[in-house]
């Protein structure tokens, strides 16, 4: 048996000491209860261990060097995770030990952290024009799923109307999380906007909620939000809007056009892109009992004691799985407390004017990019009649190349091309979702256009 210095208790002598202590002859005896048909019959194929920390670091660094990031490449990838600018103060604050090593609050009577969580919910409430905002969920997908289940617990209905152009990854989470709910797609018009006639035809007294993304997954603003909300309410359904917080400095908040529940991802608020982490979701409603008592997550409140001193605490904890376990409305976790801290710092630094300037910056660059790329022969913008924000679709059927082929060629120019929609939305043909953020320079867009012209002008 090899000794792996970074695997606890892998030393044979230590292993024997542990077995002797519990009175077992071998490790096999401990695992004997596992059914034979599900057990692996061979040793794990592990490489030889690194006995030197220096050698281990060299090995890991050699693997990491194969990676290619958005720091040394121009990126036009989005589709749910975005290359926004992260102010240095966000990393400075969330890296402090009092936040980084104790990401949750209340359990430790940590009033500084509780205040930070309260400030996060307060600033999000201002941005969303909602009364109540919960502690973050694991990501936007869980926030969306919880919003749907909240609607079900309120009206006990099981049908959910969603846009046909919904983010496929978000849809996958809804299908998994919202067990027992019937997800029904509403078709779009040619310009991508939701077909109100199709929506009317699918609304009935057994529809729990109408769910939209604004901006849509394909990048444009849904321009019939108020009408959609009115139709949902006429049918007695809840109206849920999944909104990108980066857009809320320049457009109306979901509450202003009738949303009962707002949800989304907080990754745009000072959180770096990362592979499988660094995400958190928000959930917001009016302060009404039917909503408040259906939040599975922590709610933070402020109070004043008899001495006139302010304090912060969790409100109505009896709703949560921390207090009543399996009797709670849903499962609750605390792993995203650090991102609540980060988003609070970001919102405090940006302020209303900063959020407005960022939104305008993105909008201008998105419009410029659409006009620039439309000049490239063979490229078509199928939804140019709708107003794009940060992302937009280009179709390359007319070029004779696939999106995968084009993106592979773009790598030679140190460009990450747009998200390949043909994999999950084949009905759109060879289309990609192009993303520009406030970090994208106008010169980056010009570089993309020139690279595409060169790639598409090559003879087969």
TrEMBL record:
Keyword Manganese found: no
Pfam family, one: GDC-P
Top-level EC class as recorded in UniProt: oxidoreductase
GO molecular function: glycine dehydrogenase (decarboxylating) activity
Residues covered by the Glycine cleavage system P-protein N-terminal domain: 6-451
EC numbers for this chain: 1.4.4.2
Source organism superkingdom: Bacteria
Gene3D superfamilies (alphabetical): Aspartate Aminotransferase, domain 1, Type I PLP-dependent aspartate aminotransferase-like (Major domain)
Keyword Oxidoreductase set for record: yes
Keywords tagged on the record: Oxidoreductase
Listed PANTHER family: GLYCINE CLEAVAGE SYSTEM P-PROTEIN (PTHR42806), GLYCINE DEHYDROGENASE (DECARBOXYLATING) (PTHR42806:SF1)
NCBIfam families linked: PRK00451.1 (NF001696)
Name under which the protein is recorded: Aminomethyl-transferring glycine dehydrogenase subunit GcvPA
Gene name of the record: gcvPA
